[in-house]
Amino acid sequence: MKIKIAERHAVLSDSLRSYIRHKTEGLSRFYDRIISIDVILSVEKERQIADFHAHLTNKKLINAHEESPDMYASIDAALDHLKRQLVKRKDQLRGKPFSEPSLSKEAEKLDHKKILRTDIYFHKPMSLEEAVLQLEAIEKNFLVFVNAADDEVSILYHRHDGNYGLIEPKR
To answer: DSSP strand E in 18-141: where?
Structure first.
């Protein structure tokens, strides 16, 4: 991973450069597809500004901008922001859902049931005969499909007597 450091309106010390290199090299722990990181440090009156631009594979770019009265604090805050974005990107690629903000305790007590599984239904319209064949092929108890006869979502299911049941929407 390449690390390019630029400064505006300031001259950086060697200790600050080594601090930035050390911290940015640790980002590969959170996401291993980082090509390069551009760091731009600038000083405007009492504001110490740190801008990080991480170039990822597939031409993705993640930015983090922080400012504070202390340059080290700006760097740390920008790196924390960048870490969160990298973890989020990694979760997106893995297909994990993002963690939603936590609900209040009262809401958690009332809503304790969770969605444990999600199935995909066929978007292509199919006849009732095709739906029966698909239901047998997937070996499930029901099938959600788009009925070709009326372009409505229908549900086909196995009945206890061995026959099939069909649920259609009513208008």
So the answer is: 34-44, 47-56, 60-68, 122-126
Same domain for 137 and 76? no
Judge if 147 and 78 occupy the same domain.
no
Contact 145, 126 (CB under 8 A): yes
- The CB density around residue 112, as the number of other CB atoms within 10 Å, is 7
Whether 25 is in a domain gets the answer: yes
Contact status, residue 3 vs residue 37, Cβ threshold 8 Å: yes
- Nearest Cα to Cα of residue 127 among 148, 106, 100, 109: 148
**Are 88 and 55 in a shared domain?**
yes
What's the distance, Cα to Cα, between the start and end of the chain in Å?
60
Residues of the chain with pLDDT under 50: 100-101, 103
Q: Are residues 49 and 81 in the same domain?
A: yes
| Residue 94: predicted pLDDT | 78
Give the CATH number of the domain where residue 136 resides. Answer: 3.30.505.50
